[in-house]
Design a protein that fits this description.
heterodimer; A: about 325 residues; alpha/beta; five-stranded parallel sheet; 15 strands; B: about 270 residues; two-stranded antiparallel ribbon; 7 helices; 13 strands; globular
């Protein structure tokens, strides 16, 4: 029997898309456990039950200490549940907490994973998505950070009523890293960039005006992305940067507008299923990887497309 | 803190020699390891070198006894990464040069690097880039902090060091918030490409680097068993690797006034709307 432990570093009112994908992958194994900070609310327990979760490990976590309490929670949940597989998000905090637990347990950790087979063979992307690799882990547990948009959201066939087990954590004496402040970022009504099904991204060619990009994104229910040139110019927040040093995306559809397609950009989006590129320059490298390329002015093409989408959906 | 001068900072910057991202990169079909021809200093490590240099320069620089040691691990060609760091202004280099290290996973890499930091001795701060540009796991700094028992200040988009209180304060961005984090040294710091603007080595720096020393060490020098690193010391193994089929250029049209409609037709045909 294979037991999978899904590690959630935080929960909002509802589970996020990437979290549901983690639980869907976990539900493929004979037993699914969850570790989550805080006290698992009734609505969270019900949601976890849809994925057939047997047990939820919880612990009170001091918000003024960075990362360390999450490391203790994951470590204690592994000790309690003895999973063969630990599934975490691919975000930095989840990866780092899992990596620290890997040291304590002499365990293997695999990041950027896209799938885990029944016999725990892990699929992952290498070299910015230009290669696909299969990785074996020779430890219990195997720790795996799953890329968003890799697994379909599929609740378990039979729902469960998870048992909640509160874990006593060792006191973190002499806190190593203190949280001095946490400034929330503006909440967007658009989907999160790293997990969006559709991304519309703008680059140097938007010339300071992101409104055509944002308008098409809203017509498609998409997230807004940007090239490094656009974020460095201050036209849009750095959080929107797609690429090697920004967010890596793997959506069903990526629409690139006014982005030449330099290697760093390409590294962040080349695993997208379908790529559409709009650029004035017919020689832009992005056209080499686009399924549909449009040589034209994004300020004309994007609004026309947005209007047409709204017309057809009306 | 070193015993001879309690105010002198000893900073180790971990640098990595990686395949140049400007060229096509490959995984060797036999060894399943990344091919390391056409290699260069990982671009993201330049931000780490800059962060370390900025910290010592704000507190008197090398003249005040502060040191920035550029350290790397890997085969003989890995020394290229140290050389560039010395040209930028690092005071000396350390190269853990041992063929036994080839094929190390994250776990074995952090084990070797932690042993290297302990061998260097009296280190106050380890600085790294946000990720290597080849393996891109970005978790080695967290593992180093765990192994050394030091504070983990990772993914910093800004860095301030107060020597009077021996405290580092960083900003760290997540998708939903910006955190301000604080810790006393010793610490492991990783910096993003938002943290600073790395300097270019100038002629003076390039000439000065020729006179700087780089110490070569082997795994045995660290009192590590060869079986603790490389494939034997690793817990994850790549068993297969294949290049994804190259993306091919699709249809390219030139807008003559109706391209927005054509775009929507394409999305409809692909069942994307």
């Amino acid at each position: 029997m294979t037991t999978a432990l899904v590690f959630l570093t935080e929960t909002a009112e509802n589970l996020g898309k990437a979290q549901r994908e983690l639980l869907s992958l976990g539900a493929r194994f004979e037993q699914t456990l969850v570790a989550v900070p805080g006290d698992a609310s009734e609505s969270l327990r019900a949601e976890l039950g849809r994925y057939g979760v047997a047990t939820v490990y919880t612990a009170a976590v001091d918000p003024e200490i960075f990362a360390q309490p999450l490391v203790e929670l994951l470590d204690a949940a592994i000790a309690a549940g003895q999973p063969e597989l630990v599934l975490t998000g691919n975000d930095p905090l989840s990866r780092e907490a899992a990596a620290r637990v890997a040291v304590r347990r002499e365990a293997g950790i695999v990041t950027d994973a896209t799938d885990v087979s029944a016999d725990l063979l892990i699929s992952k992307d290498e070299l910015a998505g230009s290669y696909g690799a299969q990785v074996k882990v020779a430890s219990q547990p195997a720790l795996v950070a799953l890329k968003p948009n890799s697994v379909d959201d599929a609740p378990a066939e039979a729902a469960s009523t998870p048992e909640v087990v509160s874990l006593p954590l060792a006191e973190v004496d002499a806190p190593q890293v203190r949280v001095l402040g946490a400034e929330p970022k503006p909440v967007s009504t658009r989907p999160a960039l790293n997990e969006a099904r559709v991304v519309v991204a703008g680059g140097r060619g938007v010339n300071g005006d992101f409104s055509p990009v944002e308008d098409l994104a809203d017509a498609l229910g998409a997230a807004v992305g940007a090239s490094r040139a656009a974020t460095d110019a201050g036209w849009i927040s750095h959080d929107a940067q797609v690429g090697q040093t920004g967010v890596t995306v793997s959506p069903q559809l990526y629409i690139s507008a006014g982005i030449s397609g330099a290697i760093q950009q390409k590294a962040g989006m080349q695993t997208s299923k379908v790529i559409v590129a709009v650029n004035k320059d017919a020689d832009a490298p992005v056209f080499e990887i686009a399924d549909l390329g449009i040589v034209g002015d994004l300020a004309k093409v994007l609004p026309q497309a947005a209007e047409e989408i709204r017309r057809r959906q009306a | 803190m070193s015993e001879d001068n309690s105010n002198a900072l000893k900073i180790v910057v971990l640098v990595k020699h990686v395949p140049d991202v400007q060229f096509d990169r490959h995984i060797d079909a036999q060894t399943l390891r990344i091919e390391r021809g056409e290699s260069t200093l990982s671009e993201l490590d330049e931000y780490a070198i800059e962060a370390a240099l900025a910290i010592i320069e704000a507190h008197g620089g090398a003249a005040a006894g502060h040191e920035v040691i550029a350290a790397t691990m890997g085969g003989s060609n890995a020394s290229g990464a140290v050389k560039k760091a010395l040209q930028m202004g690092a005071t000396s280099g350390v190269h853990l040069n041992d063929e036994a290290l080839a094929g190390s996973d994250v776990l074995a890499t952090s084990k070797a690097l932690a042993a290297l930091i302990e061998k260097i001795g009296d280190v106050d701060l380890v600085v790294t880039g946000m990720s290597s540009t080849d393996a891109e796991t970005s978790v080695v700094p967290a593992q180093l902090a765990e192994r050394l028992g030091w504070a983990q200040l990772t993914q910093a988009s800004s860095v301030e060091f107060d020597q009077a209180t021996n405290t580092l304060v960083i900003s760290r961005d997540s998708a939903t918030q910006r955190l301000r984090l604080s810790a006393s040294l010793p610490a492991v710091l990783s910096v993003t490409d938002q943290a600073n603007e790395p300097r270019y080595p100038n002629f003076k720096g390039i000439m000065a680097a020729k006179k700087k020393s780089t110490t070569e060490l082997s795994v045995a020098d660290l009192a590590l068993d060869a079986a603790a690193v490389g494939p034997e010391g690793s817990r994850s193994t790549v068993v297969q690797a294949e290049a994804h089929p190259a993306r091919e250029a699709g249809t390219v049209i030139t807008d003559s006034g109706e391209a927005g409609i054509a775009l929507v037709d394409f999305l409809a045909a692909q069942k994307l709307i």
